[in-house]
Input
Amino acid sequence: MVVLAGGPGDEGLATMSEQLPQVERHVEAGRTLLCRPRPGVPLVFVEVQCGGGLLDEPTDWPGVAALATGLLTEGPVGTEPTAWHQRLDDQAARLHCRAAPDYWAIGASCLAEDLDTILAMLAEQIARPAMPRSQWARLRKTHRGQQREQWAQPARVLGPLASVQAMGYGHPLAHPPDESAFRRARYRWADQLGRGALTAVGPLYGLIGGDIDGQTGFDRLGALLEALPASRRPVPPVPSARPASQRVWLMDQPQMDQAYFALSAPAPVAGDADRVALRLANYLIGAGSFNSRLMRNVRERMGHTYGIGSHWPEHRLGGAYMIHSFTRADNLRAMLELIEQTLAEIAAEGFTDDELAIARGHGRGSLPLRLTHPQAVLNHHAEALRTGLGADAVQDDWDAIEQTDRCAVNAAARRLVDQDFHLAVIGPAATVRGQLTGRQPLAEIEFSTPPHRWPAP
Output
């Protein structure tokens, strides 16, 4: 057993132990078990993770992974879904299943006193999923309604649009479903995908946290992982980014007087050797709200928008680094020029010592605040390990915040901002088109166009 992030009495880790919770780790036979004991709160969270997730979702089947995970919580073979959910309700328990970009996850939350009962139900669900067809119409209708609401809002379309432009449609981090995708989906697709999802395909992780000690948690996780059926399904390789050949995508929404836009480019992957410097740099570029250079220049000094930000997904599959905002449609050119000027200044001059001090303070304080619930703690550690970092990654990265100097942060900032960005814009084309002169090649898309019909790389 290995203790991650320290614990009471661990020599040399007192500072971190005061800030971050204890996580215990046990590794055997290709399985990584993580436990976050939190006595005194009579709740337990448990989850099993196996390789695949959206990596397994075929390019022609966007959204089917979400439908499959819905069916994977509807009970095992021989149990009627209503009776299954009644049993869960009787125990005040919640069962969940999701398709992350690179793994499948299924788990539960319950009272500590009911853990054995819920684990038995969870093991039964994992071993013999019924994938009941009786729930198909309801699930598909629910997702269609949710997507119809999302895709009516330009601000919520911008992220998927820019991600596909930077990464290529079908990449696990750029494979967005819309309402039409769920309308086209077929039960046999979800059944096929779901039945092969929860299998003993590595890397395998078991997570448990709450009112339980480490050894008991490991015993329970080991038994739960044994419920995973054997499988010869290979984990698909990590795909490469396939950026669009057009530098600008303009999605026409003539009823708007605003323009939503994003500059995007393939991002550094999680586990990058300069990851701490990249986090600090991204905070100072745009992720730090009023502490960011973009916010100060674009909003406070010039008043071009109510908000602007940057986002680094920090995922082992990559993803799109994105700078995003909105403005009046007739002001787009001026705002883009100001952003580009600000990015050029950052690349040439970097940040000041005062700015770095602010980023360091935020970094050291925000991590403990994010890791308060066992589920967040366990997933944070699992992501670090899945990325290939060592057991001490959380401790090392936290310490490195103070040790990373201004030169390293400025070098990281240049990596993020000194790129050949794509530009995605949603707004009235009649007003916006002329402001994009010199940014060719340009592709125009109608606002109602589904993602699978957006321009190909």
